[in-house]
């Protein structure tokens, strides 16, 4: 039974401003637009504003873009570069700007501070009660210290009296941002006062999900605790998979049975080359930095990050097992985004993988269905293919780094283009038996049985 989706009809429509047209901001804007509210998506980036007003998402997320286009055409959602006016014209403002990692691991709150200063100016020019909700991921104490101070000093008004202040973390996954917004696992609202909490709860009334009311710092910590656990669970799966391979055991059987324990569960228990993206690495680093500042070493978080940085090297071990040496070999890397289905290359494991391949003397050619232009900016000197076929032609082996649907369909036709049909499945997205039947050798993360092509079924060689 689905937790959602009811229309905004029957609920008082409200003018809402969402600051930031990234994943979180645009998913939030589209969600409230679908619930019947009029939404202004404010961003200082001219390109993003133009894209949103044209009904296009500034990133690859087809379901979200389809709904965005519908809302823009109906006039329910607009984008603007005039943040002050958008806030002043709205009853509720959601701040959804990025909080990227600094070199130390601490989050960069400068974009958040800039947004808050703009909101403060709008509050100073506005009449009546307004609500400000922080959906950006921020370490505990950020909202009730930094955010509150900027808003109060810049507006001359008081939180809890003249305006409400909430921490409203999101729990979205890239690739399913709209679905996760409309069908959330829970809604967490931390508030400075009951009026603010009640106001935000009314906005979420049409969505059926568990609700958690708490204080500001607890709400902020819930987000970090959730992401730290997911990162730890992925890392645990990878550690077990690495052990299984060395024991000649298929980790998928082990982890599959392990995930049937209701205390553990199957989600995020799949081996691969490590986690990446805009959330898990950044949030674990930020939590570790905060812990160290408090005098607590957070050893588990450090281990999770260390293991994650080493995990792409498992693909090199598999390649060396298959080839003897990667030196002078042509290796096709399929998938450059941090996971399949998205064009985000932030913290992608492809960077570590390719860097090590080059250091070992390999010739790398890379392909991704959507993330090529972004990855070229990171590693412009490697070769890029315009298709899967071009990447595989005359290659000695291929590594699947991101589990795009296109790569799951690889078979005899594609393998026959390779000089040596060797497949290193870095995301365990292929069926080893099918790969063997199609004439290739299969090496997978956590797969304890090195395979040989089944020549009786017709390999590539005549």
The CATH superfamily of the largest domain appears as NAD(P)-binding Rossmann-like Domain
What is the CATH topology descriptor of the largest domain?
A: Rossmann fold
Q: Helical amount among residues, as a percent range? A: 40-55%
Tell me the fraction of residues in β-strands, as a range.
Answer: 5-15%
Radius of gyration: 24 Å
Q: CATH architecture of the largest domain, please?
A: 3-Layer(aba) Sandwich
Structural features:
14 strands, Rossmann fold, 14% strand, alpha/beta, N-(1-d-carboxylethyl)-l-norvaline Dehydrogenase, domain 2, 3 domains, 8-stranded mixed sheet, 6-stranded parallel sheet, single chain, 462 residues
Structure description:
This protein is of the alpha/beta class. The chain folds into 3 domains: 200 residues, Rossmann fold (3-Layer(aba) Sandwich), CATH 3.40.50; 83 residues, N-(1-d-carboxylethyl)-l-norvaline Dehydrogenase, domain 2 (Orthogonal Bundle), CATH 1.10.1040.10; 145 residues, 3-Layer(aba) Sandwich (Rossmann fold). Helix content is 43%, strand content 14%. The protein contains 19 helices and 14 strands. The strands form 2 sheets. Strands 3-2-1-4-5-6-7-8 form an 8-stranded mixed β-sheet, with helices on both faces. Strands 11-10-9-12-13-14 form a 6-stranded parallel β-sheet. Helix 1 packs across helix 3 and helix 5 runs parallel beside helix 6. It is elongated and about 75 Å long. The N terminus is likely disordered.
